[in-house]
Amino acid sequence: MFDFLQMTLSGREPQEHSGSNFNLRWRWLAQGVLELEPLHGYWKSVVLSAGIHGNETAPIELLAALVSDLLHGKRRLQVRLLVIFGNPAAMVNGERYNQIDLNRLFSGRYAQFPACAETARAEQLEQLVRDFYDQSNESERLHFDLHTAIRESHHQRFGLLPYIDNGVYGRPLYSRRMLDWLHHSGIEALVINQAPSGTFSYFTSQHCQADSCTLELGKAQPFGQNDLNQFALINQGLISLITGINMLPHAAEPIKVYRVTQELKKISEQFQLNFPESVKNFTRFSAGDLLARDGEISYQVQQSEEWVLFPNASVRPGLRAGLMLVQVPTDSLFG
Ligand SMILES: [Zn+2]
Question: What averages of pLDDT result for each successive group of 10 residues across the chain (335 residues)?
Fold first, then answer.
């Protein structure tokens, strides 16, 4: 049986492009893209992706182990599953990306950039994911895009929920079942995005009507050096999700929910943060605190409390240099 991760990193193709064991059949669809389908009955279509940022290794290793167990018949698959290693070329180089951040290019935004390997990959992944969901009728569609961060965080593991325009579908904003699963899988906080974006999870939510979430799962090390214990709960969560066997503990702490209240947009090279760039994600600021200056413009905390996420003053002008969050009640997830 082939090693899906090693094969992806080597750029080779498996000798056979499909096969089966007593439980499932698999199809190799492209470099880093493998479809697995139970032989008998299923009730969900699940997409699991990692390596959209090539240097975020730990979730790639988790998915590689999961695929290996499935191909070797060690676990019984109960869902249709599409496993994606997003950016193999960047994974090989140990880089976040080579030319353009792949996670800005989905929902057709690849067409707005000069063609390169990453614009082609975004287009290819969109098509493969659409086809995967369209080939089956069952109603529950899920997508979890697994990431890790460089920065320390007051919440070790958190999820970014794609913006949903409630007016379009009239459906409840986010699925309670997904929220329960995230909570029991060790996700401590959720952030609701307030605008469309080029992320993979926004694409699957908006264009495939999947319940989707980008998961930030802690800090990553180079391949082989990750402490996978740090990822034990999400690993159990993923196994429970695809085998239908619930082995998740009861979560003690309620999940915290935030929404984006303002963006720190870098307009010019004069942009400067008014706090050390090394602050942890979810550091709290109080009303009136000066957050950043950009020439004549200043950004201040407008609500009584705001929390910072992904501050980065070194982005190109025109891009966002950080997000500010407010806490909201859990019920605001459901419209
Ligand atoms: Zn990432």
Answer: 92 94 97 96 93 95 96 96 98 95 97 97 98 88 94 93 74 86 95 94 96 92 75 94 87 90 95 94 97 96 96 91 95 83
For residue 149, how far is its CA from the centre of ligand 1 (angstroms)?
Answer: 6
Catalytic residue check, 188: no
| Whole-prediction pTM | 0.95
For residue 64, report the distance from its CA to the centre of ligand 1, in Å.
Answer: 17
Give the DSSP letter string of 164-209: --HHHH-S-SS-HHHHHHHHHTT--EEEE--S--S-HHHHHHHHH-
Tell me, which fold does domain 4-243 have in CATH? Aminopeptidase (3.40.630)
CATH of 261-334, one of 2.40.50.630, 1.10.10.10, 2.40.128.280, 3.40.50.2300: 2.40.50.630
**Annotated catalytic residue, options 37, 118, 216, 306:** 216
Cross-strand partners of 49:
84, 145
Distance 217 CA to ligand 1 centre (A): 10
